[in-house]
Amino acid sequence: MQVAQKVAVVTGGGGGIGSALAERLAAEGAKVVVTDLDGTGLGTIVRRIDAEHPGAALAVQADASDDAQIASVIDAAEQAFGPVDLYFANAGVAAGDQLEPDDAVWDLALDVNVRAHIRAARRLVPGWIERGEGYFVSTASAAGLLTQIGSAPYSVTKHAAVGFAEWLSVTYGDKGVRVSCLCPMGVNTKLLTDDAALSATAARAVTTAGSVLEPAEVAECVLAAMEAEQFLILPHPEVLEMYRHKGADYDRWIRGMRRYQATLLAQPS
Q1: Rg of the chain over CA atoms, in angstroms?
Q2: Which residues are the active-site residues?
Q3: Which of 120, 154, 243, 249 has the fewest CB atoms within 10 Å of its CB?
């Protein structure tokens, strides 16, 4: 898959991985609709893209988890550039801590991290099958392959995001629908650095497990994987080894994660 001349939608594009993806796509010759709830960040990114690649990007402020707003974003893309070829379900939240007693927080995590992907796919996949081509890129997390110490909602919803991406690829891969699932560990974004997102313990679990990458490095990995039509995108290669250990001896892996959690909890806040 080459992205030049393609029409892309990037959710959560007002900063972090989403903005890096939008900039890289435009640099590679794609037309990009960038969407986010954060209108200020969104405007900054699109102005930056437009300065380098005039007419390559369109900003649409929207909630990536709302079905009607997803439809509006896709309509805006079609009116501005043509049918959507590439959809980056990148918006995500690190909502909730531990078992999280508030159902509203669980609903938020499920809506943004999982249902947003489902709702977008329902809108796009039928047309992609008819045209014989389309690409869905799901931003999940290494937590979706392993786990997230400290946050049940984040871990559970990222596992679900991986599962949905797998299902899409298995079900529609022979009908022209490409699927990739991005599963990074630490990335230098608000999700990792904002105290209101992950708890201190959860954030330490990420930052001490491996290097913290810049969003541009992750975007580079994504486009390389898309060119190869590779399903699993692992900007941190060590995640694959961790995943292999998990699969090889699940009980041993769980014991090791308990020990890791204990060392994190023993550290001062």
Answers
A1: 18
A2: 154
A3: 249
